[in-house]
Amino acid sequence: MKMNVATTVNKTVLENGVRIVSMTMPHVRSVSMGVWVHVGARDESDAESGLSHFIEHMIFKGTLKRSAFQIAKEFDAIGGQSNAFTSMEHTCYHARVLDTQLATMVDILSDIFLNSVFDDDEVTRERPVIFQEIGMVEDSPEEWVHTMIGPALWGRHPLGRSILGTRENILGFDSRKIRHFFRRLYQPARVVIAVAGNVTHERIVDLTAPVFAAIAPGNGFAPRSTPTDGCDTTLRHRDLEQTHICLGMSGVSVNDPRRFAASLLNTILGGNMSSRLFQTVREERGLAYAIYSFLTSYADTGMFGVYTAVAPEDANESIDLIMEQLRQMKREPVGVDVLRDAKAFTAGNLLMAEESPDNQMMRLAQNEFYFGDHVPIQTVIDRIDAVTPDDILALANALWGSGSPALTMLGPRAERSDPAGRIGF
Prior knowledge:
Elements lengths: L7 E6 L5 E6 L5 E8 L13 H8 L9 H10 L3 E6 L4 E8 L3 H14 L4 H20 L1 H14 L12 H6 L2 H11 L5 E7 L3 H12 L20 E5 L5 E8 L8 H13 L4 H9 L3 E10 L4 E9 L4 H17 L4 H18 L3 H15 L5 H9 L3 H11 L6 E6 L14
Parallel strand pairs: 2-6, 7-11
Antiparallel strand pairs: 1-2, 3-5, 3-6, 4-5, 8-10, 8-11, 9-10
C-alpha cells in the first residue's frame, strides 16, 4: 500500500539544543503545534510522584503578562483548541488553530511555557481539581484496574505508578518545589517544538526561534532505569455489577525492531472486532461486552495487556479463555489470510490518522525523541508488510516463554477469588 500526499518535513536545531520540526500540509486550513518536553512521570522520585502532571496544570494558570483567565479568553477568541497531557516519558502543551491565527497561537504557547509564574494561590486552587481527577479515575473501574496493573507488573518502579501521583504528595507541592523541578528538568535539549499544517518551516522558525533560543542550557540529569517484569496478582473487592480484569505481561520497547510484529500480534489477538479474543469471549460465549488487548511501549521496555469486564461468576472462565488464546499464539503460526487482514487493518488506520494535523504533529515529536529523525509512514507500512507468521510466533514465544502474567481484578468477590493458578503460560 502506497500513500501519495504532498507533505514536506524540515528540522532546525537551535544553539541551546531546542529542536523545531515541522510538516507542511498544504491541503488543510489549520495548524497544530505542540511544545514537547522529554520529561514525564518516570523521571520523578517517590516524593515527586505527580509533579509533572501538576506542572501541566499550572502552565495554564498565569504568566508574567497573562492571567489564567486571559490565557483561556485569548485561545477562545481565535477559535483555538488548546490542551496538554502528561505521559510516563513526555509532557506536551499543544493547540490547533486556523492558519490565519498562527502567530497568536505561537505567542500564547511560548508565553505559558517560558513565563509561567506558578503562583502559590493558584497552586492552592488547583489541588482540589487534581483530587477530582484522581477521584474520576478511581470511580471508573476500567481505568482503575488499568492503574492497578502497573505496580502488579513493575512493582515500585516509576513506570508502575499513576501519572497523577498521590493525594499526600499533591498536598505537599508548592510553588518552590514546582519551580525547582521545572528548572532542573525542563532543559532545552529535552524540548521539541512540533508543528504540522498549512505553514512553512521558515515561518515557524521565525516565530519560535527568537524566544526559545533564550532558554539556558541545563546540566543534564540521571538516566532512566529499566524495570524488571513481575507477575503479581492484585484482587480488590468493590460493589459493582461486573468484575474488571486486566492481565499484563512483557511487551516491546519503542525501539525494538520487533515492534511491527508486536503491533500485528496485538491486532490479531484483541485489537478489533474480528480478533480472537473478541470472537471467542464476546461473540461465541457472550461473556463480555468489552474485551481487547493493548500494547504500551516506552524507550526501553513495554507491556502487552488484555482487559475485559464480565459477570463475577464468569471471571475464572474468562481468564481461562484469554490464557488459551495467548498459549495458542505461542503454539502455531497465524494463518496467512489472518495476517493479511491484520496488515490491511493496521495500514488503513495509519493512513487515516495521517490526514489529521494533530496526529502528524504528535508523530513528528515522537519520532524526533525516539529516533532523532522523521520516519515516513510508508517506511512503517513497508516494515509491517514484511512481517511473517513465523515472526509473530517467535515473538509470542520470546515474550511469554514461561511463568505467568501479572493480574489485577476489581469487583464483587474479587478478593475471594483465587485465579493465580489459572494464568500460567
